[in-house]
Amino acid sequence: MRTGFILGLVCWTLLAMGQAPVIVGQNQKFVYQNELSGFVIIETLQPGMTLYRLSVRYNVSMDAILAVNPDIDPTSIPLNFPVNIPIKVSSISFQPPPAEGNHLWLCYRVQPKETLYRISKVYLNTAPETITALNPSSQAGLSIGQVLHIGWYIPGTDLITQEALTGTIPDTTAGTPKDYIKEGRNEGLIVREQKGLAVWKPGPVTSHYYVLHQTAKVGTYMEITNPMLHRTITAKVSGNIPQGLYQSHVGIVVSPSTARALGVLDQQFFARWRYLEKG
Fold it and tell me: How confident is the model over 21-63, as pLDDT tens digits?
């Protein structure tokens, strides 16, 4: 337990200095905003781990887990597949819990168009001062990608069921894009639908979304979905994936702006995408 305390102290110091904490240990977790359920923690399935074990660990019903993971086949889940686990905001403590307790140190990465007021009042149902107390540097304002410590999660004794999922917070990171897919269908084009591994590399964030693909026509548009957070954006195909630069099983390469809009943290993630081509 002493080790966990020291690691927490290191994270607290980094946060107070306005720096993103290093992800250490099993007690620190990032939370994400999911339009179906509110906050979720994403767990990647490791050897020996099952959905049932995750449901027991977080006191979440299997129905609730499946409801926020519509792309999962519970009978066949590959290793390292990211699984959404819904959590209760009411079970987040803004005061340090006892060191020996069963709790998680929660962090949240600020997304485009989000404000301190929205994160505190709408997401967490608390005053902005509560979050600034945990993150003194946030008093000067938030920036996209900034990491906030938002409290400690203590799984409650009440089971989180499918009926308890909120699904009331809309996705604010992407507007309503022009429906290029519908237009293309009307023009007799073929819609190609694929899914697989997407990657991105850190770089400058702009207001434009771009993507590389093996065969999609440069200059056309692609609809990309992050199924874990149910976020969909439209990105412009700016080129084809260079031969030999990425592994052969990489389906698309997205720009940092695209990754941010999709709510992605890891540089490799599972995605779905659709694009148009002539028959």
Answer: 433 434 788 888 776 678 888 888 888 888 899 999 899 998 8
Residue 224's H or E segment, with its range, is: strand 221-226
| Helices and strands: H and E segment counts in the chain | 7, 12
46-77 b/e (C-beta count within 10 Å ≥ 16 → b): eeeeebeebbeebebbeebbbbbbeebeeeee
138/150 Cα distance (integer angstroms): 12
Q: How far is CA 224 from CA 33, 37, 63, 72, 103, in A?
A: 18, 21, 27, 18, 35
Q: What are phi and psi of 205, to 5 degrees?
A: -100, 125
Bridge partners for 93 per DSSP: 152
Identify the segments of the chain with pLDDT beneath 70.
1-26, 35-36, 71, 100-101, 166-180, 205-207, 279
Question: What are the backbone dihedrals phi and psi of residue 223, each rounded to the nearest 5 degrees, phi first?
Answer: -95, 120
At position 116, the amino acid (one-letter code) is L
3-state helix, strand, coil in the chain (%, to 5): 25, 30, 45
CA dist 116 and 232 (Å) reads 24
**CA 257 to chain centroid:** 14
pLDDT digit string, tens, across residues 178-210: 566 777 777 778 888 999 999 998 777 666 788
Structure tokens at 13: 């110091």
Asked if 241 and 199 count as a contact pair (C-beta separation under 8 A), the reply is no
146-to-18, 21, 135 alpha-carbon distances in Å: 8, 10, 11
CB atoms within 10 A of CB 248: 8
CB neighbours of 216 closer than 8 A, spacing ≥ 6? 192, 222, 237, 240, 275, 277
